[in-house]
Queue: 3 jobs
Job 1
Amino acid sequence: MRPTESRGPRPPGRGRLSALAREFAKFGTVGGLGIFVNLGVFNVCRGATGLPVVRCSVVATAVAIAFNYLGLRHFTYRERDKGHRSREIALFAAFSGIGLVIENGVLYIATYGFGWNGALLGNLFKFLGIGAATLFRFWSYRAWVFRALPGHAVRHGSPHGDPSNHGDPSNSTSNPAAYQPETTAPPP
């Protein structure tokens, strides 16, 4: 069988899993670049200023948040709803703020709670904080900030995108992003 030939219809869950994997790869690309920005600004700030380590980390996180917003909006989620930009930015800022607290909380506890400081340990705990915050950010950004447009997402319970389930709130029990009153029309 040639690579371009189809092996028949895919099971409904497989398509969703594949779409989620592609989305996570794009999110990871932007996030990976954001990590370089974050760690780069963090280390420059630590070396060039007399600011305490956690303050340098907060500055670096804020710069990375701005970088990541641009990457997520224009690369990862470019097909998503752009009609509510002020709402999107407000939610992005709120969830990013929570991520900032998670990320820098790890560094704060390691530095001031356990006394683990120094360049190598600072970078290690900064990186661990970024990882913990990334899990939260991926969930919150895809579920609440960058909303799917109608017809661009497979609806829960309807593997073939059945229009009769369009906007049905009963389909949102296991997927918080399935029912989107701001971006979907009410049922007929």
Note: Helices lie at 12-48, 53-76, 85-113, 119-145.
Job 2
Amino acid sequence: MPPEERPREEGQREERHDEERHREERSREERPRTRPRAERDRHEQGHERERPRRPALDARDAARRAARHVEGLTGRAAEGVTSLERGKDGWVIGIEVVETRRIPDSTDILAEYQVELDDSGELASYRRTERHYRGRGDDRA
């Protein structure tokens, strides 16, 4: 074979090899992506491992949002948080509010509101659960 034809023949061989490689890459990209069989079977049977769910709202933020909701609904400033409990789908928070200011302030009338928030901090429910004078001790102590 004359030397002038060898480089041309090798170049054509390389071009064919490149074309085949590109064709394979394109066909791989066009194939639908699927999960490995074992993972697919486990998912279909409902045995996929659940990851622990992290609440969207932590306790401090839940208390702050509950206080803001009570203030917005009653028009009275929150005096403090009396209880805080993580529920299945959110938070249950007790918020204390001064309903009536008196002199001396030991005779103020306080109310406790129970606020339920969902995981995103939205108000699910609220209700006044009790009223009492500030100066009276808690009978449950």
Note: DSSP finds three helices and four strands in the chain.
Job 3
Amino acid sequence: MATSTTASVTASHVEFGETIRAGLLGGLVGGVVIWIYEAIVWVGVQHLMPLAGIPRNATGLVFGKDVQDSLGAVAYVVGTGIHFFFVFAWGLVFAWVWPTFAHRGYEATLVAMFFAAIVWIVMHVAIALVSSNHPNYLDPNVIIGGFVSHLFYAVPLALIVKHRLAANG
């Protein structure tokens, strides 16, 4: 009896550890991919900001443009920290919920599409609550651009989590 209990505790510990690793890795890759998307689309195509504006963007969204400007170069570090804190946190959330969807036979990219929309809505409602300096979240261009950019985060995240957890399942 003690052996089976130990084995199940060890197995769940390994699964938990792999879930954490999969979520963090998926979040990291998704976080880099979304920045590549922003560099190509927001900077290169739409000219919404300079390339150097991407890392500090989160600082302005959370604390406002005045704080972003007053921090100078530190805004890049703060913005990068905010960005990666949230890509890791959302990566862990996805890795935690993914097995439920996988068990029911859903495809990771389908789940990622809905996850991207949820992430965008939650993040931008939170930003609207803590800061008055944000894009007009009722503007269709902002909504569509936000959802698309979050797809570029969620799809790589989902595929990595799916692959990593399937390899250990």
Note: The two ends are 24 Å apart (CA to CA).
